[in-house]
Amino acid sequence: MVISDFSFSTDLSKDSKSISLSGFVSNTDMLIGLWQGRILKQAEMLNSEDATYSKVKSKLRNGTIDSSTFAFNQEHSTHIGFDNYNPTNLKVYLPELPDNSTIESEKLRQQKIVTVNSISAHTRRFINSIQSKNSLHHISTALSNTALGLEDQILVLVYDNQMSVLVHKNGGLKFFEEFSGAIPNDFLYHLLYSADACSIDINKIKVQIGGSIDSNSALFVALKSYIHNIELFSSTRYHIEGAKLPYHYYMPLIVAKACE
Questions:
Q1: What domain range includes position 25?
Q2: Which of 1, 90, 138, 165 has its CA 20 to 30 A from that of 184?
């Protein structure tokens, strides 16, 4: 992750309102956001060794967590329509399961799709240790929930040299895939491929990108050279107080919040 300073200047201990937590789990670290209503008040980045409840709890000072919602972008996932989904044998959908992982599923009821994904045992233990009402969602669910009720668009999250791409069309999830890349042109190819898979002219649909990307970065410049209408992620639904970084950097925490 390129973000080196992900904290805020606000002090939650001065506010008695209830606190909810959103988190984003990657292969290398974890982002934690503390919310009051739809306002993101505080954020922290933990590496994998810090990802324990005691570490998170120390960040809360005098507050308590009412609920916790996490999204994760660990690989190995697929989507199945309701009519073809068989919950009794999930290994059929993910036959090559990573070591120390389990298979879970999640229904996107409004879109009649089931997400089947693997999750590491470490991540599941951490989520279960949170002493509040908690839920864990695959990044495709988080992006899909973020797009619900909005115009047709492509949502892109960049994190840890990975790109999560969701095509939202006609009110639902049309396409989702996670890609890895080494150079900007790799990601450009993946994004163009995603649009082509849905028979979409990428310059005739809204494209939003967020996460570990900067408007002056080689990646954004490469994407902008071909996708003229691409823009950095923003949302009128959620607000950030005291942020030290541009809004789009907090996209991982915002999409997790959309799963509440």
A1: 12-257
A2: 138
